Amino acid sequence: MLIFHKVLPVFFLPLGFGLLVIVAGALFKRWFAVWVGVTLLYLLAMPISGDALMRIVEDGNQVVPIRQVEKADAVVVLGGMVRYVPGAAMGEWGEAADRFFAGVSLYQAGKAPVLVFPAGRMPWMPHVRPEGDLLRARALLEGVPADAMFITPEVQNTADEAREVRTLLQYTASPRVILVTSAFHMPRAAMMFRFAGMEVEPYPVDFRTDYYKEWTPYDVLPSVRGLENSELALRELIGLAYYRLAHMF
């Protein structure tokens, strides 16, 4: 099932789909298809395209002052922010490190009595410590008491995280959680947690849209960042559609 969720979407995303069209066109000497694939990759690698798609999934989210956040049963910080590096006992921060610091700040502001980290680890990385353990160690250094932190069993995707967090909070009939994750991931993550039976207070961080950037000619030149934003946004939109349909049936 993990392979299904991780691999299949690749062929519907810009890089995988574009390369598939290019290779198929070259093999069957359909040069129009080759140009379609190249054009698709170019268009979706433009920063202006990546930014436009990112705005769709980040739309409606905004930074919320901590003082305005209502209290909940738990602060839940979704994973995906640590890079495993040789010699770094607690790993190194990736781009989504804002998730961790926002979660700790919410706990320290008294917004919830417990801080929850999912124990994310992929099956192809069996020898590394689960991310939740690393985040717990870092939170201890930030002054969060050990007995105020929960770590879920090992999880591999957002649906797993929602299910395991709900199990951890089973002592509450209808738990209310402050959900901390990247803004582009928030619509799908909040939906999954609601499907799992929790009331969700979204706390988005790690915004990727350049809200105040003025247009420049560089915005129509292909870039890795532009393609990455397009891929991230489209993956989230595909995930939203898939899980909504799955929940209906």
UniProtKB/TrEMBL annotation:
The keyword Transmembrane helix applies. InterPro entries: Cell_Envelope_Assoc (IPR051599), DUF218 (IPR003848), Rossmann-like_a/b/a_fold (IPR014729). The chain crosses the membrane at residues 7-28, 34-57. Keywords: Membrane, Transmembrane, Transmembrane helix. The lineage of its organism: Bacteria, Pseudomonadati, Chlorobiota, Chlorobiia, Chlorobiales. It holds the Pfam family DUF218. GO terms for cellular component: plasma membrane. Residues 73-239 form the DUF218 domain. This is YdcF family protein. GO terms for biological process: Gram-negative-bacterium-type cell wall biogenesis; peptidoglycan metabolic process.
